[in-house]
Amino acid sequence: MRLLPHLLLLSLLLSSISARHVVLYLSPDDFKDTLPADVDLDTDWEDFPDSAPETDHEVDPGSWRSVVDGDFPSDPSSSPDDSLYASGVNKMISAVSSADPRSMDDSVSDIEAAAQSGNPHAQSTLAFLYGTGSARDLTPAKAFLYHHFAADNGNMQSKMALAYTYHRQEMYDKSVKLYSELAGVAISSALISKESPVLEPVRIHSGVEENKEALRKSRGEEEEDFQITEYQAQRGNAGAMYRIGIYYYYGLRGVRRDEAEALYWLHKAGEKGEPRSMELLGEIYAMGAGLQKNYTKALEWLTLAIRHQHFSAYNGLGYLYVKGYGVEKNYTKAREFFEKAVENEETAALYNLGVMYLKGYGVKRDIKLARKFIFTASTVGQPKAFYHLAKMCQKGVGFKENLQMASALFKLVAERGPWGSLSKWALDSYIKGEVGKALLLYSRLAEMGYEVAQSNAAWILDKYGEHSTCMGELGFCTDAERHQRAHSLWWQASEQGNEHAALLIGDAYYYGRGTDKDYERAAEAYLHAHSQSNAQAMFNLGYMHEHGQGLPLDLHLAKRYYDQALETDPAAKLPVTLALGSLWIRKSYPNSFLVELIDSLPQIYPKVVAWVDEVIMDEGNATILTLVVCLLTVLYLRDRQRRNAAVLPPQPNEVPN
Ligand SMILES: *[C@@H]1O[C@H](CO)[C@@H](O)[C@H](O)[C@H]1NC(C)=O
Ligand SMILES: *[C@@H]1O[C@H](CO)[C@@H](O)[C@H](O)[C@H]1NC(C)=O
Ligand SMILES: *[C@@H]1O[C@H](CO)[C@@H](O)[C@H](O)[C@H]1NC(C)=O
Q1: Torsion-angle region of residue 283: left (phi > 0), alpha (psi -120 to 50) or beta?
Q2: Which among 305, 299, 307, 351 has a CA at the least distance from the CA of 325?
Q3: What are 9's strand-pairing partners?
Q4: pTM of structure
Q5: 332 within ligand 2 shell (Cβ under 6 A)
Q6: Which residues are CB-neighbours of 635 under 8 A, at least 6 positions away?
Q7: Which of 156, 264, 359, 540 has its CA 20 to 30 A from that of 251?
Q8: What is the mean pLDDT of each run of 10 residues along the chain (657 residues)?
C-alpha cells in the first residue's frame, strides 16, 4: 500500500458497457497534514453507521417510479394533492407512451394544480417541464424556482437537479452542501462492506450508431440468467442459492426487491456451507436490513464465515467490536480484525481503518495514515471511501480545502442513489420500443446531471427526429425545439467530458445545425474534443486551419493537426493522406487552378452531400467533405498524369515542414 509519488489518478470502477470515465487528479501538493481550527473530528465526522438501509420509496418519496408502481401515495387518504400529483404523473407517462399531446396537457394541469397547493413532488415535476419546455414554455428561471421550492420541501430529485445546476455554474459552496447530503443518503443504504451493486446507466449509442451489443446484453440475457440460476438453486446448488438471494435482496435481474425471499435463499445457502451467504447474513443481522437486528446471530454467521476461510468477514467482526454490538467494545480487537480483512483483500476494511485513525479510536489520531487508507480504498472504487475523501476535501482535513474536488466526488457518490434507478426504467422502455417514454425518463436524469443520460436523450432526439415523440411547448416538438434541446443536452454531456458530444457541438456550429453557423465556436468545441484526444476533432481542426475557418490560416499547424489525428487513430490514414495531399497542392501550386478547384468544391458540396446523404449516411461532416474534395483532386491528378507525365503526383510524405 504505497501512494503513487506524483499524480494520483482516481477512477471510479468502470462498468464495461457504460464506459463511464471519471478521472480526477489529486497530487501531493494538495495534501495538508494539519487540522483546520474550525474542524472537530469528534463531532464533525460520521461515526460508523448503524442505521438500517431503507427502501428506495422511503429514501426518494414521490418519484415517478413509486407513483407508477402504486407505492405513492402509500395511503390514499393522505393528502388530496398527493393523489392529484399521482394521477398527473400516471397520465403523463401514458401520454408520452402513446404519443398523445392532448392528454399530456391534461396531465400537466393536474401536476400544476398540485404544485400550486404546495406539493413538493408536483413542483419538482413542474420544474422539469419548464426546464425542458415540455407542454410549458421553456423557462429556466421558473424551472430553477420550482426546483428550489421542491428541494426545500424534501424532494430529492430536485436536490439533485439544483446541485448539478450549482456545480455547472461553479458555485461549489452551494453544490457541495446539496451533494454531500445526497451522497450521505446514497451510501446509507449500504451494508457494512457490501455496496448495493448499482447499475451504471447504459450508453445506448456509440458515436452515431445504436450500441447494439449493449442493448442485446440488457435485453434477453437477464431474465434467462435469472431462470437458469433459479432452476439450479431449486436443484440444491448452494452458489446459485446465494446468487438468487442477492438478486432478490437488491432487486436485480428483472426481479422486484423482496427481502423475505432473499433471506430465505441466503439462509438456505448458508446452511449448505456457502460462505459468502454467511458473511452477508452476518451483515444483514448486524444492520437490521429487512429484519430485526440480532447481534448474536450476526456474530454467529460472521464467525462461521471465517471458519469457512472466508476472511473478508473479518471486516464485519471489526464493525461489531468498534460498536460493541453483541461483544464487549474493544478498539484494539476491531483494528486487528480490520487489518486481517485488509490482508485478505477486503478493500472496504481499508476505509474503516481510515475512519478509526481519523476518529482516533484506540489509536493516536493520525491524519496521514487516515488519508492513506481512505485514498487507497477510493482507488479501488469504494463509494464510501469516495464519500470520506470528498468530505476531507470539503473540510480541509488531510487535503487542502478544495470545494470543486469535493463537489465532483460527492456528485459521483450521489449519482449512486436510488434516483439513478430511473436509468434502468428508461433502458427497459427503450428496448421495448417506447422511445418517447425513454426520452422522457432520460431527460429527467439528464436534468439531475447524469452524463450518460444526457447523451442518450440527445442521441434519441437526433436519431428519431419527428418520431422521437418529444413533447414541445404545444404538442410535439417543432424542429427548432428538437434541435435546441439536443444541442443543449450535447453541450452538457460535453462539459462532463463526453468527447463525442464535443465533436457534435463542433459539427453543429460548423454546419449551422440547430444553431447559427459559427466557425469560431466550432473551432472552440473541436479544440475541447481535441483535448480529449479525439482524432476526428484533430482532423477538423487541421481542416479549419487549412482553410482559415474560425482559426488563422496556417498550413503548418494544419499539417500538425492532421499528423496528430493519424497518430491518435490509425483508421484516419486515408482522409489524412488525402488531406495532406491537398495541403501539398496548396503549398506547391498557390493560386493555381488546382487550388481554385479545391476551394470551389465546398460550393458544390451541398449537391455532393445530397448524394452522400442518400448513399452513405444521413449527415455529412468535415471528414466526408474533405474526403470527397481530396478524392476528386487525386482523381483529377491521376487523369492529368496520364495525359501529361510531367506533372508529379502528390507526395504527402514530403510535405516540407
Ligand atoms: C437472537 O438470536 C439468538 C441466537 O440465535 C436467539 O437465541 C435470540 O432469541 C435472538 N434474539 C431475538 C431478540 O430475536
Ligand atoms: C482488547 O483486545 C486486545 C487484543 O485482542 C486484548 O489484549 C485486550 O485485553 C482487550 N481489552 C479488553 C478490555 O478486553
Ligand atoms: C463523420 O464521418 C466519418 C467518416 O465516415 C465518421 O467515421 C464519423 O463518425 C462522422 N462523424 C460524425 C460526427 O458524424
Answers
A1: alpha
A2: 299
A3: 25
A4: 0.78
A5: yes
A6: none
A7: 156
A8: 33 32 65 82 78 76 89 77 92 89 89 93 96 90 95 95 95 95 85 69 81 78 78 91 90 82 93 93 86 90 92 91 91 93 87 90 90 86 86 91 91 90 90 92 96 93 79 84 88 82 80 77 82 79 85 88 83 71 74 68 58 50 58 48 34 36
